[in-house]
Write a structure and sequence with these properties.
This protein has about 350 residues and is α/β, with parallel strands linked by helices. The chain is globular.
């Protein structure tokens, strides 16, 4: 009897034919690290990832022995031929394809199909078993076109500057922060960055992924913003950096902008835009259908998403909570209502 292509151990998802865990914070042996967001980095002795993720992982969690594969490159790992493809989520983010005598396993990790200025287009190859992230696996999470959202971001900045207020844009330090900066500098805005975002922007540049002009960017210096955009992390919204600005307008970038309770979650923000580095509901459905998989497992999202897949005639199952099922720091699901109001989970 053929062994299953994927299972769940005490350390998380395990691809037996490749003899590696998938996005495990720690596991014996080898761990595939899909990207370098902090909750996907690993303490394992050996990791498999792209060269960009290896560099970012070193900076965020320390150096590891790493087997690095560029997009489209294949290596034999245990009993499988492993190939990495672009996931479109962040710089270096990868989809794992593991082919063996038992069949082909594809693990998406966190991904999106929409444009990312730092990655090639996303590739989710045909497979027998698909393990897919489904953070936004509810019909309400259908994001408007990126072009429309970016135009709204520009309009927000223009309106704030016209009022002699500082446009404050809140975005996660890695991924969304760099995408926001790319769009802002391309449109000619000058930007000052929170140090955590700036450090990762410097790493992007060192890896050959710079930011277009004519706008400029610089690290934030206390009290020195001027007629520039302040791009900072959500956790600083209530700190002196933001609160002591005499005049300000605040915009948060998050897919949870489409949550029914968003107006309560993001009190104090003038605008919340559903700019996300995750696939939306329609992208998730299209991925599942296009994969041709005879077995689909969903992770990192609502268990109810499998009902939508089954309605399309797909064999789908949600894997029970495991060490990586908490979502991204910037895309963690809103917490249950507390005292009649919703509160945001991790930022």
């Amino acid at each position: 009897m053929l062994r299953p292509l994927v299972s769940v151990t005490s350390h998380g998802l395990y691809a037996a034919d490749a003899d590696m865990h998938l996005d495990a914070r720690w596991a014996p042996g080898t761990v595939f690290v899909s990207h370098a967001h902090s909750d996907h980095c690993s303490e394992a002795a050996r990791i498999v990832c792209t060269p960009e993720t290896a560099r970012l992982h070193d900076a965020r969690r320390g150096a590891r022995e790493a087997l690095t594969l560029r997009y489209g490159e294949t290596a034999v790992v245990a009993d499988a031929r492993v190939t990495l493809h672009s996931a479109g989520h962040t710089l270096g983010a990868a989809v794992l394809e593991a082919r063996s005598a038992n069949g082909t396993l594809v693990y998406t990790g966190d991904y999106k199909v929409r444009f990312n200025p730092f990655t090639p287009p996303t590739v989710v190859p045909p497979c027998d078993t698909l393990v897919m992230e489904c953070t936004f696996g509810e019909p309400r999470y259908r994001f408007p076109p990126d072009e429309a959202l970016v135009r709204r971001l520009y309009a927000f900045v223009d309106a704030a500057l016209a009022e002699d207020a500082v446009p404050v844009v809140l975005a996660y330090a890695f991924g969304k922060g760099q995408e926001a900066l790319w769009h802002l500098t391309r449109a000619g805005y000058d930007v000052v960055l929170h140090g955590a975002i700036a450090r990762l922007c410097e790493l992007h540049e060192a890896l050959g992924h710079g930011f277009p002009g004519p706008g400029t960017w610089a690290r934030y210096k206390k009290g020195d913003v001027g007629q520039r955009v302040l791009l900072t992390t959500p956790s600083t919204r209530k700190t002196a950096m933001v609160q002591k600005l005499e005049r300000k307008r605040i915009c948060q970038l998050t897919g949870w902008a489409l949550h029914p309770g968003a107006h309560n979650i993001y009190k104090g923000c003038d605008l919340v835009l559903p700019i996300s580095d995750h696939a939306d509901f329609d992208e998730l459905l299209r991925t599942a259908l296009d994969s041709g998989a005879s077995q689909i497992y969903t992770v990192h999202g609502p268990p109810t998403f499998v009902h939508h897949l089954r309605a399309l005639g797909l064999n789908a199952e949600h894997l029970a909570a495991h060490p990586q099922d908490a979502g991204e720091p910037d895309e963690a699901p809103p917490a249950a209502p507390v005292g009649g109001q919703l509160s945001l989970g991790m930022e």
